[in-house]
Amino acid sequence: MARALLVHGATFLVLLMLNFALPRMLPGDPIQAMQDRGSASFVTSDKARAELRAYYGLDDSVVDQFGHYAANLLQGDLGISIRYQAPVLDVIGERLPWTLLLLGTGFLLAAVVGVVAGIHSGWRRGRRSDRTLLALLIGVRNFPPFFVGSLLLLVFSVQLGWFPLAGASTPFGVFGPLQRIADVLWHLVLPSITVALSVVGTQYLLMRNSMVGELGDPYVLLGRAKGVPERRLKYRYAARNALLPVLTLTSFQVGAAINLVVFVETVFAYPGLGRLIFDAAASRDYPVLSGAALVLTLMVLVVSVLLDFVYPRLDPRTREAR
Length: 322
Description:
Blueprint: H1 2-24, H2 30-34, H3 46-55, H4 62-74, H5 88-123, H6 128-141, H7 145-159, H8 177-215, H9 218-225, H10 230-255, H11 257-267, H12 273-282, H13 286-314, H14 316-321
Helix pairs in contact: 1-13, 5-6, 5-8, 5-10, 5-13, 6-8, 7-8, 7-11, 8-10, 8-11, 10-13, 11-12, 12-13
């Protein structure tokens, strides 16, 4: 475990440097973006732009900028947003809960559908239900999230009017606690389904393949010979062992979720971290981009550390290997 924590620590340091460097590789800089009259942070005064450039240290060398960034980070300070003129921690703090809710709901839906369908399909490989699930979920897997989201909006919001077009809640709505929860969930349905459809196909395929691999293992053949009930053999033994690669895949999918949330939250105008990153990239808001990337990095590392604790409990063989 100590070795794993050391590896995670080194990974975090590398990602920290990338979080700082990648926003600065975008063409232009925040001050140049302010010269665009269509920008939300448009500034007309040359003097004001020069003062902002000096305040944010944009004329300093990259090494000096990183030194200031690291020193402030050690104090828990992510800086001041150039676009919103507010502490980055406050800006991210307003958006992060919405993204966690969206990703948590979407990944939970995908896990339930992908794992259950993969277990059933792998256990009955080659049969009609297996072929149907395989064709359906592979087809869904090949559609990009912005297309899926746009299609859901067109059908269920524009044509049928069942769900709202945008946002995470009804603006200026006066609700009681239960009505407020219902309103948030109503706005969450289509974005979370889009997230789930974007990842469920891969989870299903891996779970199905893992189940197929388990069917030929001696313990399955022995269990059948001893008359172990099929349901118990299927879920308690085969599915439990087949689940391990799916857990690993989920950690990688969380790592790739930055692209997913940017697309989904932009299509649905959902006020989460992905929409914040999209807007910050347009205005070259370095503090927000670095801060949001840092939060997503920590999310990935937390999921990875949790898997290090869960793995040995699901498969004692990994405990011995450590």
